[in-house]
Design goal:
Blueprint lengths: L2 H10 L3 E8 L6 E6 L5 E2 L2 E3 L6 H13 L1 E3 L4 E8 L6 E8 L2 E3 L9 E7 L10 H12 L8
Parallel strand pairs: 1-7
Antiparallel strand pairs: 1-4, 2-3, 2-9, 5-8, 6-7
Length: 147
């Protein structure tokens, strides 16, 4: 494919990449966030910005959404295809076993809440994808390639 055709293909068929992170506190509770623009409780995360790698995006999103700083290596859980988002969206999911938990940011235009919940008492409205990722992580199951 010639360079111009390759460029047009990327514009017309752009790949999007996002990250989600499983974070636990010292009591084993799971961090979930509630957004202003979609229903349910989700793992914290978001899009990978230009010039960022996925791990950098994960750290940035945790700081912005929940006041959590990554203090050690992230553990890759899996890479998933999110067919509902643009047909070319992928999500990289990590576990962050080493974090420093700061005060929760106040609700803002993007994040309405960021809270820790016991695994056996997750809030009503946890999204199906979040529930699947937590079950896979908790039970050591093989990951489903679909988000």
């Amino acid at each position: 494919m010639v360079p111009f055709q390759s460029f047009l293909r990327r514009i017309r068929h752009g790949l999007t990449l996002g990250v989600r992170v499983i974070v636990t506190d010292q009591d084993g509770r799971i961090l979930l966030v509630r957004h202003s623009y979609t229903r349910g409780w989700h793992l914290p995360g978001g899009g990978v910005d230009v010039g960022e790698n996925a791990e950098q995006a994960a750290g940035r999103e945790l700081r912005e959404e929940a006041g959590v700083d990554v203090t050690g290596p992230l553990r890759l859980i899996g890479v998933y295809f999110n067919a509902r988002m643009a047909g070319r969206d992928h999500v990289v999911c990590y576990h962050a076993p080493h974090v420093k938990i700061g005060p929760r940011p106040k609700p803002n235009l993007e994040i309405r809440a960021a809270e820790f919940f016991p695994l056996d008492a997750l809030p009503e409205g946890v999204t199906p994808a979040t529930a699947r990722r937590l079950a896979e992580w908790r039970q050591g199951l093989s990951t489903d390639p679909m988000w």
